[in-house]
Amino acid sequence: MLHIVACIKQVPDTKIIKMNPKTNTMDRASAPAILNPYDAHAVEEAVRIKNRYGGTVSVLTMGPPPAVKAIKKCIEIGADEGYMISDRKFAGADTLATSYALTKAIDKIAKIQPVDLIICGKMTIDGDTGQVGPGIARRLDIPPLTSVKKVEEVNKDQGYVVVHRKIEDGHEVIQSSLPCLMSVEKEINEVPYSSFPNMLNAARYQPVIWSVDDLEDIDIKQLGLKGSPTIVAKVWAPPKPEGGTMFEGNPKEQVEQLLSVVLEKKELFHTKGGSE
Amino acid sequence: MNFEEYSGVWVFIEENEGNIAQVSLELLGAGRRLADKRGVDLCGVIIGNGVTLLSETVFEYGADVVYVYDQEIFTHYRTESFMKALLHCSEKYKPEIILYGATSTGKDLASAVATDLPTGLTADTTELDVEEDTGLLLASRPAFGGNIMATILCKKYRPQMATVRPKVMKALSPEPGRTGKLVEETIDVKEEDIRTKVLEIVKSTTKKVRIDEADIVVAGGKGLGNADGFQLIHQLAQALGGAVGASRDVVEAGWVEHPHQVGQTGVTVTPKIYFAIGISGAIQHLVGMKNSGLIIAINKDPDAAIFEASHYGIVGDAFEIVPLLIQEFSKAFAEEEVDHVREV
Lengths: 276, 344
Known about the structure:
The complex is a heterodimer of chains A (about 280) and B (about 350). With about 280 residues, chain A is an alpha/beta fold. Chain A folds into 2 domains: about 5-220, Rossmann fold, CATH 3.40.50; about 240-275. Chain A is built from 6 helices and 16 strands. In chain A, the strands form 3 sheets. In chain A, strands 11-10-9-12-8-1-6-7-13 form a 9-stranded mixed sheet, with helices on both faces. Chain B has about 350 residues and is an alpha/beta fold. Chain B is built from 8 helices and 19 strands. Chain B is elongated, with a radius of gyration of 22 Å. Classes of the chains: A alpha/beta (about 280), B alpha/beta (about 350). Chains A and B meet through helix 3, helix 4, strand 9, strand 10 and strand 11 of A and helix 4, strand 7, strand 9, strand 10 and strand 13 of B. Chain B: This is Electron transfer flavoprotein subunit alpha/FixB family protein. Chain B: Pfam families: ETF (PF01012), ETF_alpha (PF00766). Chain B: It comes from Pseudalkalibacillus berkeleyi.
């Protein structure tokens, strides 16, 4: 039976987050915590693969205790099991330290049931890097498949997958051995509304929660802030660009002024009768 | 880690069907500036099959040294094979900085290399600088959905790595005949060591939306109200012969497809004229269009951030202003010596 692990994250909804204009810091309380939208597609794809070939979908997250809510959301989508690693020692992790911690948790999950496929969202909307997925793949020494927009085939018996990977001007069809890790694009599927039975399941569901001490062979120095090579040295509001000229008058007058400015840029336009 | 062993600014040169990706040339321009500030070599790394000749172009765009891995196994980009070559090169020659284009290939490769080295990697950088004395790379990027900018450092590891968005940096003008030191390398990788195969490469057959190549971009935001309102953008773009752009929330609302999205998670554009209509102007959006030649904003809210990033602004209702614009431009095209905007 296929065992798919989807890695997910609870994130502040960056569309709603507000800035404190005095301190230039984020008011995190202003933003609701949500399941990272790209990860919802990862979980949905895992569930679709399970429905096609049979198997189990586990979700894994690292986060503070309230992140249980994001796991419950995944159970609503159709995941079977949820695992969370939660410990202050994980705090402040960059992508390298995050992929290390998640890999250690995957090792432990694999002891419960061997893992065939790991699926991540393309990136998180708070970090925007897309580096954790490939990082996990490298640490587990399995092939990373990024920018996946379609899963064509999963063949556990013969140990391979075929996927479509998005590239700049099209896509490539890639065959990879199993186990492997894929990070998926948003266009890979549509996440439907949760079904009522799944919502009931989710409401009752309690994920397995591990602290650092529950993970084996772990090197504390590679966790959290200490294990993170990158540091955020400065956070700043971008310099306000010089505001330009505002046109005045009624709409018609404003449009006329704008037109005279734009039409001065004659080099943009064909000259009548001229050729390309 | 002995930092003194590490020297030089490297650019991973991305190649596709015998052509160097534009972003790699842009990074050579940015890399040149960093290398000069540090007084070190600028180096390009080319990995592929039949790619050695491309080194000439890399020299012309500013590199002092080019490392080439020209082997059949590199015919197609694959994470595992390319990563092995780059790790080999990096371990042998020890660069202090490696830059990659933030493309599907560059991001994929950089993430894998960073994990194996291991070192820090800053994604989607939009500003780069280096401390002259310490060699510390200052990589800045929008963070938290573009609400703020963050400068990211990697103090304790070398090389320092960053991916950089296409079109954010400027390529130098090529200097014909400029040359440098070519270093040809090979690695022993067998096909059976690589666990992925490229079965097929499918070029997009649908008419491409290349807003990054358009001379005029007409972009709309949530201020247009709904998908029907967004049609105004299409109409003005058509009247001007420009391309349609959009803010992230418009794409997320499904009014227009993702290839039209301008900004940090979309496309960076540098048209000659950029219209921002009903767009409030989050940094995320601004980093994607701020290098446009002439920026014109139309918005109901006089306090919208977009006005501060624009050369000209009109405070008003798009549904009133845009139809007037279409009408006036059409009239101008009919009467003036200008005919129509260049086809893109």
